[in-house]
């Protein structure tokens, strides 16, 4: 064997060894770059999470599950509970917000839209009846005139007559209309809540007590003026 052939063998062996080593170094470099990019992404995500404000506290709020007419007697399925930001609840309802369970059997004083909160101010109570004055008495007058009662709105003025046409009171203010069928089944007459001056209470009570069972629908005339 010549000296030249003996001297070239180690060079080929060194090249054979160096090639895998270079590939391994390249692979490690790529892996290091991938890991560096992943760690950088995690750092950015952690930073954004740390900067994100804490979730705003919420409170349960009863809202109307559908459009409700004025004077509607609330049932359990008329109201649902949703979560609102606590700051909005305090602005809209304040303290003493009723729960959905406590609203069944209560009556709304005015129309309530679907999704609108049912607050204490929307319920029919002496404090929320509009148009009352000192010395007024709130009376419920049965009326079987469906066409007229559907037209009545809080603030309207009506004249009250008995079944014989005798006037009992004039110009009394309508506070709310309770739809027919709310209290005693689908055939029950609608009721109109009115603010009556004390001087007319006796006459109005007589007008509504002349029917069978001691109660008769009164005749209402809307003051168009």
From TrEMBL:
N-terminal signal peptide: none
Chain spans, region Disordered: 1-25
Family annotation (InterPro entries): SAF (IPR013974)
SAF domain sequence ranges: 59-124
Compositionally skewed regions (Basic and acidic residues) per UniProt: 10-25
A Pfam match: SAF
Name of the protein this chain belongs to: Flp pilus assembly protein CpaB
Organism of origin: Barrientosiimonas humi
């Amino acid at each position: 064997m010549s000296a030249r052939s003996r001297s070239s063998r180690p060079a080929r062996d060194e090249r054979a060894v160096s090639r895998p080593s270079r590939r391994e170094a390249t692979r490690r470099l790529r892996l290091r770059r991938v890991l560096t990019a992943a760690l950088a992404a995690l750092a950015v995500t952690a930073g954004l999470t740390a900067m994100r404000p804490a979730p705003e506290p919420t409170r349960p709020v009863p809202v109307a599950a559908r459009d409700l007419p004025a004077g509607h007697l609330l049932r359990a399925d008329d109201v649902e509970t949703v979560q609102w930001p606590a700051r909005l609840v305090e602005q809209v309802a304040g303290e003493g917000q009723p729960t959905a369970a406590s609203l069944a059997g209560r009556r709304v004083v005015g129309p309530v839209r679907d999704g609108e909160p049912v607050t204490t101010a929307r319920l029919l109570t002496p404090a929320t009846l509009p148009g009352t004055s000192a010395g007024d008495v709130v009376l419920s007058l049965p009326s079987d005139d469906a066409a007229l009662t559907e037209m009545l709105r809080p603030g309207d003025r009506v004249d009250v007559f008995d079944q014989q046409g005798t006037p009992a009171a004039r110009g009394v203010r309508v506070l709310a209309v309770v739809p027919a069928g709310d209290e005693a089944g689908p055939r029950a007459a609608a009721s109109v809540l009115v603010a009556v001056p004390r001087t007319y209470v006796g006459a109005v009570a007589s007008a509504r007590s002349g029917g069978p069972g001691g109660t008769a629908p009164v005749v209402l005339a809307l003051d168009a003026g």
